[in-house]
Amino acid sequence: MIVAGFGRFGQIATRLMLANNFTVVLLDNSIEQIEIIRRFGWRVHYGDASRIDLLRTAGAEKAKLLLVAIDDREKASELVEAAHQAFPKLKIFARAYDRRHAYELLKTPNVTVERETFESALNMGRKALLKLGLSERRASRAAAVFREQDDRFFKELAPVAGEEEAYIMATRDARETTERLLRTEMQRIAEEEDMEDAPQLEPAHRLEAEKERV
Amino acid sequence: MIVAGFGRFGQIATRLMLANNFTVVLLDNSIEQIEIIRRFGWRVHYGDASRIDLLRTAGAEKAKLLLVAIDDREKASELVEAAHQAFPKLKIFARAYDRRHAYELLKTPNVTVERETFESALNMGRKALLKLGLSERRASRAAAVFREQDDRFFKELAPVAGEEEAYIMATRDARETTERLLRTEMQRIAEEEDMEDAPQLEPAHRLEAEKERV
User: Fold this and answer.
1) Which residues of chain B are modeled with pLDDT < 70?
2) A20: nearest CA in chain B?
3) Integer CA distances (angstroms), B39 to A9, A70, A98, B19, in order
4) Residues A76 and A104: beta-carbon distance below 8 Å
5) Phi then psi for A114, rounded to 5 degrees?
6) Shortest distance, CA A203 to any CA of chain B (angstroms)
7) What is the pLDDT of residue B198?
8) A196's torsion region: left (phi>0), alpha (psi -120 to 50) or beta?
9) 3-class SS at A142?
10) For a 10 Å CB count at each end of chain B, is N or C smaller?
């Protein structure tokens, strides 16, 4: 496979590939970045990944996957489009800046996207909930429901993504629906936990409680 | 709680809090960003969160948590430090640009950090492994082992984070150890899966196989 862009994002994805014995060709077009990376022991090729001849030399004809992890929205979009034109069978994974960039990238067929801060933001939210005293289960469930809903609305809102006003309206609705759903789910878990708490009393405590009642 | 910086990152974490009935005060110092956010139906206060008086007005004395999700490394570091000085009991969660920024933020006590692209990059790597034909279990395990190891080395390397050469050497070692561990774990799962595959043959197929052997 080929990885274009070897910064914070590309490195982590690449290391998972290498550990599973996939052959990876790395491309980066910043000389500075390449020098830093080489000092850390990586072999990286220098060159503009948007040049189709360079992608061809890197093996794009036969590669199983092209992973676009460039830290530049426009260049990433251009590369994804050009690579698909030149190698229509190539599967492409692309790092998206945000939701809008994700929609833009998905105009090209055969592309899978990942919003670059989504999962980290969700994880920080989950950890903050834990710090605020929520149970592990409730915090994880909150993140999971949020992800499911976000995924659902991401797909549902795709048709209006290009229309400013319609998109904003739809997003507000989607947000309210997600919040309502999340609130209901959190309430449900809280009630379950309250119920679980009751019979968890030690026999001795239960006796105490009964005594008091007497 | 107080959220400083309400971009892609802050919004997601905030929505998890709101759904769990925490009161959130939002601060952002970009007028443009605030206008966009308000169009989406949010009430956000305008102001430079690094001004202590503004944090105080926002309720920092009593807040359970300050979430710093600013998209500017230096400003985030300054805010984290200043907020801790003024409100030593305040728990702070901070969005870090990368590993180095994370180390910098952690110099201040009472701070929890989250590298802003780490989880998303890991998730993309996991999904790429799935696309390349690995089992759900193997791909998820790869991501989990990577996270565990990364977490371990993040803590272990903290003392040398400020020393350029030592840090680079230690990072190379850590990377090799992680890769070796991951490879071993992936190998182990692959072998387990091969063994599980064998008895999963349908009875009819098993008969066929036996016939052939005869």
Assistant:
1) 198-214
2) B183
3) 31, 30, 18, 20
4) no
5) -140, 120
6) 33
7) 66
8) alpha
9) helix
10) C
Q: Are residues B135 and A4 in contact, defined by beta-carbon separation less than 8 angstroms?
A: no
Q: What is the pTM of this model?
A: 0.87
pLDDT, mean of residues A150-163: 92
Altogether, the residues listed in chain B come to a count of 214
Please give the pLDDT value at position A200.
Answer: 52
Least CB–CB distance from B119: residue in A1, A41, A123: A123
Per-residue confidence at A45, pLDDT binned at 50, 70, 90?
A: confident
Q: Where are the alpha helices (DSSP H) in A132-163?
A: 136-156
Q: How far apart are CA A125 and CA A142, in angstroms?
A: 9
Chain B CB within 8 Å of residue A43 CB: no
Name the minimum distance, in Å, from the CA of A212 to any CA of chain B.
34
The answer to whether the Cβ–Cβ distance between A146 and B16 falls below 8 Å is yes
Nearest-angstrom CA–CA distance, B174 and B155: 11
Q: Which residue has the higher pLDDT, B18 or A45?
A: B18
What residue has token string 């290009």? Answer: A162
pLDDT at A198: 66
Taking phi over 0 as left and psi of -120 to 50 as alpha, with beta for the rest, A133 belongs to left
Nearest one of B134, B130, B122 to B187, comparing CA atoms: B134
- Which residue in chain A has the smallest CA separation from B134? A20
Higher-confidence residue: A40 or B109? B109
pLDDT of A150 reads 94
Task: Return the H-helix or E-strand segment holding B186.
Answer: helix B164-197
Residues of B in contact with A118 (CB under 8 A): 8, 12, 120
DSSP state of B142: H
ipTM of the complex, rounded to two decimals = 0.86
Residues comprising chain A, all counted: 214
* Closest residue by Cα to residue A59 from A93, A89, A84, A25: A25
Q: How many CB atoms lie within 10 A of CB A69?
A: 26
Which residue, B155, B43, B158, B16, is CA-closest to A131?
B16
* Residues B78/B84/B85/B86 CA torsion (nearest 10 deg): 110
Identify which of B121, B26, B38, B115 has the alpha carbon closest to the alpha carbon of residue B73: B115
